[in-house]
Amino acid sequence: MLIDLLKKLAAFVSLLLFSAFSWAMSFESDIEFSFDNERYWGRFRYDGDKVRMDVKDLHGNEEIVIMREDTNTCWFVNRNMTYSEVAMKFGIAASTGIIGDHIDPGKVRRQLLGMEMLNGRAVNKYRVVIDSCGKPVEFIEWQCPGRPVPLRVASPEGNSVIEYRNVLFRAQEYFRFQLPEGLKKVRFDMPGKKSGKA
Predict the structure, then answer these.
(1) Residue 151 — φ and ψ, nearest 5°?
(2) How many other CB atoms sit within 10 Å of the CB of residue 155?
(3) Where would a tag sit more exposed on the chain, N or C end, judged by fewer CB atoms within 10 A?
(4) What is the full per-residue pLDDT of the chain (198 aa) written as tens digits?
(5) Rounded-to-integer distance, Cα 56 and Cα 43, Å
């Protein structure tokens, strides 16, 4: 009798969890990431086809990155009231490891690599391949069972690692994914590339 009751309760809780995460997922979290041995941290906001990252580095540089799949645009906003704009080469899921409910499940392949302990939690480790803009993109994902946001995402080579912490599920204000007024547009230069003549 008690076993049947527990089974029904577990099924009900599972249904609630599924319902909670089946709506258009919106959340914000702290973020820490590294790319080619450079560390960054800040605030991450996600709303399906839109992402905003307010980040800074160890040298005191600050930047806002806004990614918009609906316009295929990525903006880089600097503290000096300038911004640059580039077309997105990869979708948000391939760039951040966050696979929202608007993504076609047929474009995502997951392979369980095993279980690991991460920040004191038992997590599943996956190899993920996603079709993004017609190209396959691969990454490694550490995820708690039942949670739609991974704790960590990394490139297969390990030179790029993102960690999501203190995730808070709530609706995001649309203005956060728009360019602030009064900015001047400047040319986008790839990091490490010098502009002008040699």
Answers:
(1) -75, -35
(2) 15
(3) C
(4) 333 322 332 333 333 333 333 336 899 999 999 988 899 999 999 998 999 999 999 998 999 999 999 999 999 999 889 999 999 988 899 889 998 877 888 889 999 999 999 888 899 999 999 988 778 899 999 999 888 899 999 999 888 999 999 999 999 999 999 998 999 999 877 554 444 433
(5) 10
Q: What is the pTM of this model?
A: 0.79
Q: How far apart are CA 128 and CA 160, in angstroms?
A: 15
State the burial class of residue 96 (Cβ atoms within 10 Å of its Cβ: 0-12, 13-18, 19+): buried
Q: Do residues 108 and 99 lie in contact, with contact meaning Cβ atoms separated by under 8 Å?
A: yes
Specify which residues 31 forms β-bridges with.
42, 164
Contacts of 53 (CB under 8 A, 6+ apart): 31, 42, 43, 44, 45, 64, 65, 66
Cβ pair 77, 83 in contact under 8 A: yes
Beta carbons of 168 and 157 less than 8 angstroms apart? no
CA angle 160, 157, 114 (to 5 degrees): 100
Question: Burial level of 176, CB count in 10 A (0-12/13-18/19+)?
Answer: middle
Do 132 and 94 touch, CB atoms closer than 8 A? Answer: yes
What are the tokens at 154?
């990394």
CA distance 30 to 2: 41
Q: What share of the chain is helix, strand, coil (3-state, %, to 5)?
A: 15, 45, 35
